[in-house]
Specification:
Radius of gyration: 24 Å
Family: Belongs to the glycosyl hydrolase 79 family.
Number of helices: 13
Number of strands: 27
Membrane topology: Peripheral membrane protein
Subcellular location: Lysosome membrane; Secreted
Protein name: Heparanase-like protein 3
Keywords: Glycoprotein, Hydrolase, Lysosome, Membrane, Secreted, Signal
Length: 564
Amino acid sequence: MSSSQNREMGLCFLVCIVSCSFIYVSSQSAVAGNDNSSVSEGTVFIDGKTCIGKIDEDFICATLDWWPPEKCDYGTCSWDQASLINLDLNNNILLNAIKAFSPLKIRLGGTLQDKVIYDTEDNKQPCVQFVKNTSQMFGFTQGCLPMYRWDELNAFFKKSGAEIIFGLNALAGRSIKSDGSAVGAWNYTNAESFISYTVKKNYSIYGWELGNELSGSGVGTRVAAAQYASDTISLYNTVKKIYSSIEPKPLVIAPGGFFDANWFKEFVDKTGNSVNAITHHIYNLGPGVDTHLIEKILDPSYLDGEADTFNSLQSTIKSSATSAVAWVGESGGAYNSGRNLVANAFVFSFWYLDQLGMASAYDTKTYCRQSLIGGNYGLLNTTTFVPNPDYYSALLWHRLMGRNVLSTSFSGTKKIRAYTHCAKQSKGITLLLINLDNSTTAEVTVTFNSTWRLHQKHKHKLHKPHRSHKLHKPHRSHKSHKSKVIQLPQRSTSGITREEYHLTAKDGDLHSQTMLLNGNILTVNSSGDIPSLEPLHVNSSKPIMVAPFSIVFVQMPYVLPACS
């Protein structure tokens, strides 16, 4: 090897790679922000040595609910025909929207699931639908799932390739005391009959979940942790018995409620290995009627607040003998059906993608968005089925963000959120950048800060430095780093390209329900086909430009130890 080659190899002792920018396209301003914006430089630090979390391959999940058209909040009725009972299963956009994920997890459930009876052979009650009645818990009478509708739903799910999690009625057999608590053991006779029917019909179920929002102080009513653990063990034994000759068996999932540290600890300790996934719900933005939702979404410190819940649940699971994993079982951001032109608009992708990034960094395996359709927070428009901006955010995440999560931090403006995963469909990594600033473009360079050997496509290997620096808290700014940072010579990256996906709101309007990808409007065609999501190919020697109020996914062909 010549001395000049030796020098080149020496230059590749590298913990810092200047990476990433955009290609100037005809609609340059749509991708990189307008000419009036100021520019702020910053650095993303990525620890590529080990992963800090590992998500499911099918991490993205969405919900279908039971709410009838009469469900109204603050004088607005936003559910229309989006209930499991009346949803139009022949709609082509709905089918294509689910098929685009191959597969999408769908959780069937919500508030009214604990008032649903299943019209199987054992059921002796009339099978009537929910009727609005404000004197009843949750504002509706008892409802019923006819088996012909269950058959229709399963035919649709099979056609769409969805993976189904079904939320069972956990209040059956209990009585409500004057203090609002639900007491007595779960009567699982009807649920057992329903599960048996499902198996007999050879319907594929990914998981059976017990109850909705009955943990801690509950919503409407509550069940004590010890009793809930006992009931979950009953579900586990029922599933084990009915699926005795079938593999793989569905997951047993619970409790599907809001995180309460003491309640969850007792529940996790007492269920042992009779539960596979611990589900909690997130509505951290408050009620949909709140006029300050956008201020909360654009406030980095407000977004950071939810990290405490993720951290506490992760600690609860780690300190227990359980083999269960954490899921977000339902999350709509703003409760009581969300808010029109916020929860179904571009601005909500800031909250949603930040949640996906944060949840992943705390080893959450699956994240179920309320809802696929229905309410103001649906990924699809309730009446037209046309995808809202968050649908495309979810689809890009699903296609680009791989299972392994890398510790990531950002040094610079507090308005940038940064998350990194190993890439999903190719070698390398995918970086997600969110710019919450309304007037400043972030000019971002990327530094790999760890003990590793970097591989570039079509380039020499980069050798291993001797120091490592672990970066924690993926959503907070980076304060200090002790590893030596060596700048990569520009010619080492000049032949490498990366892929960039810039997401912006139409006309820069945060309330817009139209999202642009690299300056082009995303919409279905007349046949209801989901558009292809095409990246820009960018020279890796340039920094990444993140326009004001924009989101960028950047796929880079650098193979790190955590990804190999």
